Amino acid sequence: MTLKEIAIRHVLRRKTKAAFILAGLAIGVATVVAVTTFAETMTRDINHKMEKFGANILIAPRTDNLTFSYGGMAMGGVSYEMAPIRESQLARIHTIKNASNIAAVGPTVLGGVRVKDRPVLLAGVDMEATPILKPWWKIDGRTPDADGILAGAEAARIIGLTQGQEISVNQRRMTVMGILAPTGSQDDQLLFSRLDTAQALLNKPGEVSLVEVAALCNACPIEEMVAQISEKLPSAKVMAIQQVVKGRMETLHQFKRFSVSLAVVVMLIGGLVVLVTLMSSVKERTREIGIFRAIGFRQGHIMRIIFLETAMISTAAGVFGYVAGTGAVWAGLKLFGTQAGNTLQTDALMAVGAMAMALIVGVLAGIYPALTAARMDPNQALASI
User: Fold this and answer.
1) Contact (CB, 8 A) for 353 and 325
2) Could you tell me if 114 and 123 are in contact, meaning their C-beta atoms sit under 8 angstroms apart?
């Protein structure tokens, strides 16, 4: 009979203790897999949403302010606005070092107009870039052409605009070609048209009020791109607008750090369960170990038997722990109705890591019981028979 067969028979003979060791390690592995998988899934989900976040760099004309105050009394101030951004300057953006990371550049011109004797703000935008810059837009109707208008939900309600209606905008006949669904942003208060149309209506030929830039990926070096664009457009103010997403990512990073600490504590508890259970098993097997030593088994053989038993149980615990942890994350995401559950993927590396972690913890916890069993005096063991 080989050492492996002895180890297998002992595990099958003492199912309760083997199950206790397996449960202790499996719970630890499942907890580690669950928190790690959850963090990775949420990171992947945020990254996916971040890529569709729209504009994350804003370019506006630079304005210098001079405040008037004397003796602690504020007397107002004055703003010195530098030259406005010209549409012809925007081609420089595509010459920056990280130009390949730019998904869309959306120039916008703003100005007040009157519709039905009501003042309203008109925004001329690049309709081709809008689906990338504002992916949350839902239009009831169609995208406006050169003589068309897209009305924000609140602007349409207050002014009384309907799809297909003809209106006069600064003495030019325009057609309301679509109504924008409520967005909860300032877009609800505006009227939108094509960029060249708005420039003509506002008498701002070739002029741009602001520019929105969308980076192609969430990991793009936004701050470096801001610096590069600022160098190309020295008369403009360039700033990143990713604070909300960055805040969520920082929260997620903190959760990851917490999960690592939790994993260490849980696996230490799992290792302690293995240690205590194996020590109890070794004491129960005093007679068996004495017989093995009496018939010629060396200390190394006894240790190998203990390690083989531990390794078999630990490997099984790693498999059960991975399945249980992944299943718990999937069920949790589905329970809370988050779309991140749709992006949950099985990870072969995670499965291998779970089994390796269980094996390492189990074997390390089994060192002391194995040494205790190997150093047992065979004469003392046989005397107990």
Assistant:
1) no
2) no
Higher pLDDT, 295 or 77: 295
pLDDT of residue 153: 93
User: Is-contact 293 302, C-beta < 8 A?
Assistant: yes
What are the φ/ψ torsions at residue 366 (nearest 5 degrees)? -90, -5
More confident of the two residues 41 and 161: 161
The values of phi and psi at residue 27, to 5°, are: -65, -40
Task: Using pLDDT thresholds of 50, 70 and 90, give the confidence band for residue 58.
Answer: confident
Q: pLDDT tier at 92 (50, 70, 90 boundaries)?
A: very high
Task: With beta carbons less than 8 A apart as the criterion, state whether 37 and 45 touch.
Answer: no
Predicted pLDDT at 218: 55
Beta bridge partners of 124: 109, 193
DSSP secondary structure of 342-377: GG----HHHHHHHHHHHHHHHHHHHHHHHHHHHT--
| Rounded Cα gap, residues 332 and 146, in angstroms | 50
Which of 202, 371, 136, 364 has the alpha carbon at shortest distance from 272? 364
Structure tokens at 137: 């837009």
How many CA atoms lie within 13 Å of 342's alpha carbon, on the beta-carbon side? 5
Kindly report the backbone phi and psi dihedral angles of residue 162, in degrees, each rounded to the nearest multiple of 5, phi listed first.
-130, 155
How many residues comprise the chain? 385
The letter for the amino acid at 330 is W
Residue range 176-217, pLDDT digits in tens: 999 999 988 889 999 999 999 999 999 999 999 999 988 766
Buried b (16+ CB within 10 A) or exposed e, 132-165: bbbeebebebebbeeebbbbbbbbbeebebeeee
Q: Where are the alpha helices (DSSP H) in the chain?
A: 3-13, 15-51, 130-133, 153-159, 195-201, 222-232, 243-284, 286-294, 299-335, 348-374, 378-383
Q: What is the mean pLDDT of the chain?
A: 80
Q: CA 143, CA 119: separation in Å to the nearest integer? A: 23
End-to-end CA distance of the chain: 23
